[in-house]
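agent: user wants the full assembly modeled, not chains individually. Plan: 1) parse entity lines 2) check alphabet per entity 3) run joint structure prediction 4) return tokens. Steps 1-2 passed, two entities, 577 residues total. Proceeding.
--- entities ---
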Amino acid sequence: MKSYEFAIIIDDDITNNLICENLILNTFLAKKVRSFITLQEGYKFLETCIEQKESPDLILLDLRFPEQESGWDFLDKIKDILKKFTKLPDLYILTSSIASKDMERAKNEPLIKSFISKPLSTEKIRTIFS
Amino acid sequence: MNIHTQISLENLVTAYLKHDALQENLDFQLWSETLLSFFNQYFGSVYFYLFAVHPKKEHLIVEYTNQPQSDFKTISYKGDAILTYLLKDAPSFFALPSESNILSTCTSHLNSLRASIVLPIYEKNNLVSVLCIFSNFLFPDNQIKALYPFISHSFLKIYYVQQLKKEISQLESMNRALEASQEAMHENAISFIKLHKKLTDSLAYAKRMQQAILPSPQLLENIFSEHFVIYLPKDIVSGDFYWCSQVDYTFLAVVDCTGHGVPGAFMSMIGNTLLNEIINTKRQTDPATILTLLHKGIKEVLKQEESHNKDGMDISICRLERDANFRLKLTFAGAKSALFIYQNNTLTKVIGNRKNIGGIHYKEQIEFDNQEFDLQDGAILYLMTDGFVDAANQERTRIGMEKFQSLLKESVHLPLNLQKEKLLQYLSDYQGQAPQRDDITILAVKV
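--- prediction returned ---
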């Protein structure tokens, strides 16, 4: 199974973030994990990563937020930032969306590694990241 | 003075008519004074009493007299045969016998008296007045006999005017009472309108609150490729509601609470709160367990074991997810409700458990069953309350489940917005003028 140094989760669902953080650490998917509950917070963090040496190599991004912007808008905004990273992180969509249009869009987006349907589980981690 | 003995009967009557016509006799007093002046002129000084008859014929009432010293107002019929005679036999004028109560009462203050005559006045054989004239001289019978019908006729003219005035007065009084009553009714109507407005405003506000708890069209648009909602409360607020959440999984529910209107709306708020708590807060994700917890929650919130309250709800709940291989999976649980799934050109009816949430089963610990289905992209789910199926026409015949199913089959190939229009058109045509029986909710989504 794949293993990452630093994972970040961007999702407005605090409970989901807490569960995901534990799952990621318990399955040794990443050595370090951090979560953000707004797109704004996530964006600011990624901006600071350019100057610092530590940047995430795994990003789990939700699509629906209470904010005006969606995960798709966020993705458009961070494209330029990610290009400045020494290594492009693996980006996964983690969502409860069942919409096929979201899946199709995810397939056609080169930055997106894959689409993970919520809730995240040990079994899903092992299947997706093996 | 003996003028009366020298005048012919014809001239006497003519003189009376002229005398009477010259006066403007507007009431009994003026009429009496006119007659009195005639008698004074043609017969000499007389003592005069005009009595009205009490409506119950129990006594005579003094209407007018030229005897200011007279201190009585009424004369009782009791003990005076003359008065009874007047009532029963309707006689013409006559002289009062000496033992008459009326004679002794009217003349008690007079020292000498030679004559007394009574002129009863009848209106259609009904005694309406008695005129008593007393004098110190005798009246010639033939002259009184000649004058009597004219005096009587003249009196009745005033009597009719007075009766008319009384009736007008009564009518005016009734009119005033009617106006007062109309005013009171008007005020009541205004109060009623104000109260109705207050209640309607309050309910309209409650409706806004209820609408606010329903999933937004934007949320449904984001999740599903197509959807429609038919949400027709019977009253302003509804006992039905639909619910959607995307926490961990995508959840969709349609709920029919006991009753409709305000009690139904209160139940819907309880149901909505419990679903939020069970799914969004407690993160329960198993549909069958969610229904069991909802049943437990209703029992606890309404204290049903103590209060024996039997309110409850019917519910269809769907959990939608994509597995690790992105296959779409549906898990359905129902409490006295059904779900329709359309995919692969087939419409399938899925029936939930036969027990409802809360209600008469409040004493029981109810378990519900999950039913799982693999869904193709483009599959359509129809969740509904029994309002559409139970809608009746003017002959009180329900649409029925069979007809509803055939309506769905006829239009499944259409876009969902057109399916909605067809269902609404059928409902409107079927119900006609018949009132809506219950709240109606249908939620259809294309995955």
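agent: reporting back. The interface with chain A takes residues 222-225, 246-250, 283, 285, 320-324, 326, 328, 377, 447 of chain B (CB under 8 Å). The longest strand of chain B covers residues 312-322.
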